[in-house]
Backbone:
C-alpha cells in the first residue's frame, strides 16, 4: 500500500491512478468490490463508475487504510496548484443554476451551504432550468473558475429543486453540522437517470456465470428457466441442496435476475422493441419523467383532468385510460418512501426535545440499524411496514458481535416509538421481546456462537422439520423426506423448533450446521412460542 507515483497535473488522471493502486492490492480490491455492490443498488449507467470512484477514493474511509485513500496516500508536500491539492480541496454539492455568464460558463448555487461558484464546463449552457440539478464534486480550475469531476450527475425532474430545498432546510434545522454524502446523493438522485437494462442484465449474468462455473447440473440457462417457472425462493432452495455455492451471493443476485427476466418477458410500460412497427416520438419523455411531472402538478394543485390528459399524451396511452378509480389504468402513481434514516432522525429529535437526548451508544446502534434496514430493503421501507423480522435479524447480528444487550436497550425504545407514534405493526412483537422472546434470543445467540467456534462452512440452508431428533428437509420442496443433522450441541438442539432453518453444509446426505436462523426471520410476526 505504498504511495502512488508522482502526481499528474489533472485531478481526473490522479483519480484513475489512485483507482489502479487500489485494484492492485488484493485487500483494497476486495473492499472496492464490496463497496461497489452497496453503492450501485443494482443500477448500471454510464457515469456510475465515475461517481463510485470519487466516493470511494475521496470520501469513504477505507477499512484497511483507516482513511479515504486520497488522504492516506497524499504526499507530505505537494504543489499547491497541482492535482493533489485540487483533489484534497474538492467539495460535493447539490447545485442549481443561479445565473448564466457566457457560453459554457455558469454561476451555480449549492442548495446546502448557499455557496456560489463560477463554473466552466461543456454543456453548462443547457443547465439554466428551474428543474435542473447538478450533483457532484468540483475542483478549482484556476483563480476564478471551478471544474466538475467526471462523476457530475445532472438530473431534471419537475419540482425536484424546490422539494430538495425544503428537505435540506429541515435537515439543517435538525443538524447544522451535517454534510452531504455522495453515497446518499447516489441513492436519492440516480433513480432519476434513465435505466440501462441491457447493461444491467449483462453485468448480472456475468456475475452469475462466474458463480456457476464448474457446475454441471446448474447452468445459467437452466437458472433463468427455473426462475421464470418457479421463482427466486424455490430456485435458491434447490441450489442450496444441489450445490455448495455461496448462498449469500445467490440471495442477492437471484431476485434481481428474476426481475430483469420478467421485465424482458413483457413489461406493460416498456418501450416498443426496434422493428416492432410501433413508433415512439423522439421527444416523448420517459415514463419516470412523465409520472414525476404528474406528481409535481398534483402537488401544486393543478387540474387533475388536465394532468391526466398530459400524462396520457406523454405515455402514448388512449385518452381516459388513466382516470383515478379506473381498474384498467395503465400505470400506478409511484409512492415516495422516505429514507429510513429520516425516521431515526425524527426519533432522535423528539428524544432531545424532551430532555432525554440519545447517548453516543444509542446513536451508534440506531445508525447500524438504519444501515441494516437499507441493506435489507434497498428499494426503501416505510416505517409502517417495519415488521418484527427486521428487529430480530438485527439483534441476532448484534448478538453474534457480543452486543445483544446493548443493541436491545437502544432498539426497543425506538421500536416502541415507531409503534406508538407511527403506527408500525410492532406492539405484539414488543410484548414478546419483553417476555419469552428475550430468552429465546439469548439462546439463539449462544448457540450460534458455539456453532461458529466449530468453523464449519455455510454453503446451504435447510428447513428444520423435527427438533427431537433434529432433522431437516432433504428435498428442495421440503417434502416428507428428511435428513439427519449431525454435530449439533445438545443446548442448540433444545432451542430448535420445526420451521426454523439451519445454515451449514451437506456431506454424505447429512446436514452439518453452522448457525440457527429462527423462523421469525422469514415471517412478519414474532411467531409462536417454542415447541
Residues:
Amino acid at each position: 500500500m505504498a504511495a502512488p507515483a508522482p502526481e499528474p497535473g489533472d485531478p481526473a488522471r490522479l483519480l484513475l491512478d489512485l483507482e489502479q493502486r487500489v485494484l492492485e492490492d488484493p485487500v483494497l480490491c476486495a473492499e472496492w468490490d464490496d463497496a461497489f455492490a452497496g453503492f450501485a443498488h443494482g443500477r448500471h449507467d454510464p457515469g456510475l463508475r465515475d461517481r463510485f470512484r470519487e466516493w470511494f477514493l475521496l470520501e469513504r474511509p477505507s477499512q484497511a487504510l483507516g482513511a479515504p485513500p486520497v488522504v492516506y496516500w497524499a504526499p507530505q508536500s505537494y504543489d499547491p496548484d497541482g492535482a493533489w491539492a485540487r483533489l484534497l480541496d474538492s467539495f460535493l454539492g447539490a447545485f442549481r443554476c443561479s445565473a448564466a455568464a457566457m457560453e459554457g460558463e455558469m454561476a451555480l448555487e449549492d442548495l446546502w451551504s448557499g455557496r456560489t461558484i463560477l463554473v466552466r464546463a461543456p454543456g453548462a449552457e443547457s443547465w439554466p432550468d428551474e428543474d435542473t440539478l447538478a450533483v457532484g464534486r468540483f475542483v478549482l480550475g484556476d483563480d476564478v473558475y471551478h471544474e466538475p469531476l467526471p462523476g457530475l450527475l445532472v438530473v431534471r425532474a419537475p419540482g425536484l429543486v424546490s422539494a430538495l430545498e425544503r428537505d435540506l432546510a429541515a435537515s439543517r434545522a435538525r443538524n447544522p453540522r451535517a454534510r452531504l454524502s455522495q453515497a446518499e446523493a447516489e441513492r436519492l438522485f440516480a433513480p432519476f437517470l434513465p435505466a440501462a437494462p441491457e447493461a444491467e442484465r449483462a453485468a448480472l449474468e456475468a456475475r452469475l456465470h462466474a458463480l456457476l462455473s464448474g457446475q454441471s447440473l446448474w447452468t445459467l440457462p437452466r437458472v433463468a428457466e427455473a426462475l421464470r417457472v418457479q421463482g427466486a425462493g424455490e430456485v435458491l432452495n434447490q441450489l442450496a441442496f444441489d450445490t455448495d455455492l455461496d448462498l449469500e451471493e445467490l440471495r442477492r443476485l437471484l431476485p434481481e435476475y428474476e426481475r430483469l427476466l420478467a421485465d424482458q418477458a413483457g413489461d406493460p410500460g416498456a418501450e416498443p422493441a426496434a422493428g416492432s412497427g410501433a413508433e415512439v416520438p423522439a421527444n416523448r419523455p420517459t415514463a419516470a419523467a412523465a409520472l414525476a411531472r404528474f406528481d409535481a402538478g398534483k402537488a401544486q394543485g393543478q387540474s387533475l383532468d388536465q394532468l391526466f390528459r398530459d400524462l396520457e399524451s406523454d405515455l402514448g396511452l388512449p385518452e381516459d385510460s388513466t382516470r383515478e378509480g379506473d381498474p384498467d389504468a395503465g400505470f400506478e402513481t409511484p409512492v415516495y418512501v422516505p429514507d429510513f434514516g429520516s425516521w431515526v432522525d425524527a426519533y432522535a429529535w423528539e428524544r432531545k426535545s424532551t430532555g432525554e437526548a440519545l447517548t453516543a451508544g444509542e446513536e451508534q446502534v440506531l445508525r447500524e440499524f438504519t444501515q441494516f434496514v437499507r441493506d435489507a430493503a434497498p428499494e426503501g421501507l416505510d416505517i409502517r411496514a417495519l415488521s418484527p423480522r427486521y428487529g430480530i435479524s438485527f439483534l441476532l447480528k448484534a448478538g453474534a458481535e457480543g452486543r445483544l444487550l446493548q443493541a436491545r436497550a437502544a432498539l426497543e425504545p425506538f421500536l416502541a416509538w415507531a409503534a406508538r407514534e407511527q403506527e408500525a405493526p410492532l406492539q405484539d412483537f414488543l410484548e414478546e421481546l419483553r417476555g419469552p422472546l428475550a430468552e429465546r434470543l439469548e439462546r439463539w445467540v449462544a448457540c450460534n456462537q458455539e456453532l461458529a467456534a466449530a468453523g464449519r462452512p455455510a454453503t446451504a440452508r435447510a428447513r428444520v422439520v423435527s427438533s427431537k431428533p433434529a432433522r431437516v428437509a432433504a428435498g428442495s420442496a421440503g417434502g416428507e423426506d428428511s435428513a439427519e443433522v449431525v454435530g449439533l450441541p445438545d443446548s442448540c438442539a433444545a432451542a430448535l423448533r420445526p420451521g426454523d432453518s439451519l445454515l451449514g453444509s451437506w456431506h454424505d446426505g447429512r446436514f452439518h450446521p453452522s448457525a440457527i436462523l429462527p423462523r421469525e426471520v422469514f415471517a412478519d410476526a414474532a411467531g409462536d412460542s417454542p415447541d
About this structure: Residues 237 and 476 are 5 Å apart (CA to CA). The chain has six domains: 11-86, 90-189, 197-266, 286-318, 340-434, 440-522.
